[in-house]
Write a structure and sequence with these properties.
The complex is a heterodimer of chains A (361) and B (438). With 361 residues, chain A is mostly helical. Chain A contains 14 helices and 4 strands. Classes of the chains: A mainly alpha (361), B alpha/beta (438).
Chain lengths: 361, 438
């Protein structure tokens, strides 16, 4: 009913290669974007925007980053938290650079600062991606784990990264673009959303391009990919670079937009695991899955935490916290049993069924 | 899709969305809303539970005994964040606008303090970080909404040094001694380092730094290093499960416990009791005395526990419990101040800030509030959010803590310039102007 494609014929290569070939998808995305930009900031409460939507978007961006590496290119990484930390701390260094040199603050524009932080992270990511040429799978996961620990240790140990802050905490400068200050939760949300929307669009296009097909070829069988002409060195390292760029930008946004001040602990090993779980639960090799996974991992615990008081169930907050862990764990196992390919796969199946409705097979 | 499924779907979505919707409209009567970020779970629960219980019990007692503060009922709501900064921020955002707005926050977490320092500035809600948080936040002109309200970490470090010097018979005697600083390797623990480095240069002792990785359960390697270094004194900046492990490890390397001094977050029954006999002789700083003999604790026993409404009977009278009670007493006094000045029962955060900046917790006031001899005397001002205060060294005798020192005060000639420099740097990086106090 909803996804019947009768009459939607493609008559040119351009149409055939469109990012959303089906009309319904195009409308859906347009509605979603309009809602995200024009409805959410006005309808939702400050709490929802500031404490739920903004961190969700930033973590979704990090999940896209990891999904490019793990889902599309098949390189397992446990270093996401470390790469986010690189993004956050290099953005901080860029933002305060001019002060150190004696110039006025904010000489480097904010957007450029965040993008430069992504570039720095991409370079660091390439360095830690080099071992991927020789090692695969779990062995690579351990190598990237080293990145996680090394980066965290270095940021704690070397005072230069925090401008010699006594506690190792960095403080983000105000979010100002061309004299406009983004300081309310809604403004910060719009700022984040713009970054995430553009980068998600870029990622979607990237994975459909020559580069993305190279990543998938390497993932599915690297020897075969090499025989048909993909060079493993460039392909793998480009995956590491792009992935780290995304994670770096997410880290910079986390520090600058969400928390305002951040310590390296915020990008610990738990962060890496959480983002890996987002990718696994959301769906490996799916941009949509990154969003669904991020929503599942970040929103569900808060949702579960809010339920007992809401239904008038008066139990201690510690009990609620324990319940939250238990239910969350059970749900993860349940979803992975029901749909091992992630929640995004459920959406795809739903779409298939709707296409052939009322007689789905 | 059938109609039935559609309706079910809509109802399901509504149920799922309900917990995220905003709170019910405000109450008509005058109330004071005090949300409490707590961590009764996670690696720091040993310290989180008594501090949470002390606060909740105190306000339960005030509601029971006085019917609230100045006629306004106190609403306390807990929000569990498990010492996780993201969740702490989420709790803050969730609670700040409920019940006509939150009056004050006390997260008992350095990470959350750092994250909230900026947010409370825009939201105009005071942040009380009694004895923790940013060391430079005592500069009221740079941090108008943050109230460390006690000697901060740097002040505490210099006070502990004074005590060590006293043991050795003078500050010139510590020259060439070795002092090991064992700290939890997160923002909280690292706050102590700069002041010890400064003192090491000034007084000529040999400082050795030993980070303990978060959350502090694995310490074997650290203590092997300490044993090799043979320090004369060990100073510890620990929290939660780290402390008892460290005390046991210190005993294992046969370190003289007389010379092992924790800071005031490393000196509670939760740290010494699990360590058993190893802990006998262990010392720590404290600004809140343990014991059940104080009138305020007696009132809590009478009005809360006797009626079966208490949160944790075991904790009553313990160091951390009493500390949480003292913190609430200061908030209480601040509310009374603000109510008197502005003539309203249900004050707001901005008015409470004035109340706290004009606190006069002298001996008479402490007596009136029932905490005579239990906590420090402080008198903060708009520019000085520390307000003086001193602390003690206490020692564990196997059953309870006993105060073993005179009142210690910070070396302000070292601490205040460091605070001012750090606060100035914060203002510059943030592009903020200092607040005027005139």
């Amino acid at each position: 009913m909803f996804y019947r494609e009768a009459g939607q014929f493609k008559s040119s290569y351009k149409e055939d290669q469109a990012i959303f070939p089906i009309l319904q998808d195009r409308i859906g995305i347009a509605v979603l974007l309009v809602a995200a930009y024009l409805v959410v900031p006005f309808v939702m409460s400050e709490y929802l925007i500031g404490a739920i939507m903004t961190p969700f978007l930033i973590l979704a961006l990090a999940a896209i980053g990891l999904n490019i590496l793990t889902g599309y290119a098949g390189q397992i990484s446990l270093g996401t938290g470390g790469f986010m930390a690189v993004g956050a701390f290099s953005a901080y260094k860029f933002a305060t650079w001019s002060i150190a040199l004696g110039g006025a603050e904010g000489t480097i524009p904010l957007v450029l600062t965040i993008l430069l932080a992504g570039v720095v992270t991409a370079i660091v990511g390439i360095m830690f991606g080099i071992p991927s040429l020789r090692i695969k799978g779990f062995y690579l996961a351990v190598a990237t784990l080293a990145a996680q620990f090394f980066i965290e240790w270095m940021l704690v140990k070397v005072g230069w990264f925090t401008n010699y802050s006594p506690s190792g905490v960095i403080t983000a400068p105000p979010l100002e673009i061309l004299g406009y200050l983004f300081d309310t939760p809604a403004e910060k949300y719009i700022f984040t959303l713009t970054f995430v929307a553009i980068m998600a669009w870029a990622a979607k296009n990237l994975v459909r391009s020559h580069i993305g097909r190279g990543w998938m070829a390497i993932r599915d069988m690297d020897i075969a990919a090499e025989i048909i002409g993909f060079r493993p060195l460039q392909t793998k390292l480009s995956a590491f670079a792009v992935s780290s760029f995304f994670c770096g930008v997410a880290g910079a946004l986390w520090a600058f937009v969400h928390l305002g001040t951040v310590e390296p602990e915020a990008f610990g090993i738990n962060r890496s695991f959480a983002i890996l779980f987002m990718v696994i639960i959301g769906g490996m090799g799916s941009i949509l899955g990154s969003f669904i996974g991020a929503a599942f991992i970040t929103l569900l615990p808060i949702f579960l935490n809010n339920v007992p008081p809401l239904i008038g169930w008066n139990i201690g907050v510690d009990m609620v916290a324990h319940l939250e862990f238990m239910i969350f764990g059970v749900l993860i196992i349940f979803f992975l049993i029901v749909e091992p390919h992630g929640l995004a796969r459920l959406w795809t199946i739903g779409k298939e069924k709707l296409r052939s409705w009322p007689f789905p097979y | 899709m059938s109609l039935k499924k559609f309706v079910l779907g809509v109802v399901g979505a509504a149920v799922l969305a309900a917990p995220f919707t905003t709170a019910a409209p405000a109450l008509a009567e005058d109330t004071l809303y005090l949300p409490k970020l707590v961590y009764r779970t996670g690696p720091f629960a040993p310290g989180g539970i008594p501090t949470a219980n002390g606060a909740v019990d105190y306000w339960a007692m005030i509601n029971e005994r006085d019917g609230g503060v100045g006629g306004a009922k106190v609403i306390v709501e807990e929000c569990e964040f498990g010492y996780n900064t993201d969740r702490g921020v989420e709790c803050y955002e969730r609670t700040k606008n409920k019940n006509n707005g939150a009056l004050i926050y006390q997260p008992y977490s350095t990470g959350v303090t750092y994250a909230l320092a900026d947010r409370t500035r825009t939201d105009k809600i005071p942040l009380m970080t009694m004895g923790y948080g940013r060391a430079d936040a005592g500069i009221g002109t740079a941090f108008p909404w943050v109230f460390p309200l006690m000697t901060n970490y740097w002040g505490q470090g210099t006070g502990i040094m004074k005590y060590i010097a006293e043991q050795e018979g003078g500050i010139d005697k510590v020259k060439d001694k070795t002092i090991a600083l064992v700290y939890l390797d997160i923002a909280y623990g690292k706050e102590s380092i700069p002041i010890f480095r400064t003192m090491s240069e000034k007084f000529g002792f040999n400082l050795k730094e030993y980070p303990v990785t978060f959350p502090g359960i694995e310490q074997k390697a650290t203590w092997l290093q300490i044993r090799r270094a043979k320090p004369d004194y060990i100073v510890m900046w620990g929290w939660g499960a780290m402390n008892q492990t460290a005390i046991k490890e210190a005993k294992n390397i046969r370190f003289n416990m007389e010379n092992f001094i924790g800071n005031w977050w490393a000196g509670a029954e939760q740290d010494t009791v699990p360590a058993g006999a190893s802990a006998v002789g262990y010392k720590s700083a404290t600004f809140s005395n343990a014991g059940k003999d104080y009138p305020v604790i007696q009132d809590i026993m009478k009005h809360v526990y006797a009626k079966g409404n208490g949160k944790g009977e075991d904790n009553v009278g313990q160091v951390l419990y009493n500390r949480a009670v003292i913190t609430q007493v200061f908030i209480h006094a601040g509310i009374l101040n603000a109510q008197a000045k502005f003539g309203v029962k249900a004050i707001n955060g901005e008015q409470l800030r004035w109340g706290l900046e004009n606190l006069k917790m002298d001996a008479a006031m402490n007596e009136k509030m029932g905490i005579a001899g239990m906590g420090p005397e402080i008198s903060p001002t708009c520019a000085d959010h520390v307000g003086g205060g001193g602390f003690f060294i206490q020692q564990w005798d196997g059953k309870k803590f006993n105060v073993v020192s005179e009142a210690l005060t910070p070396m302000n000639d070292l601490v205040i310039p460091a605070m001012e420099a750090s606060a100035a740097k914060y203002l510059k990086e943030k592009g903020l102007d200092a607040v005027s106090c005139n």
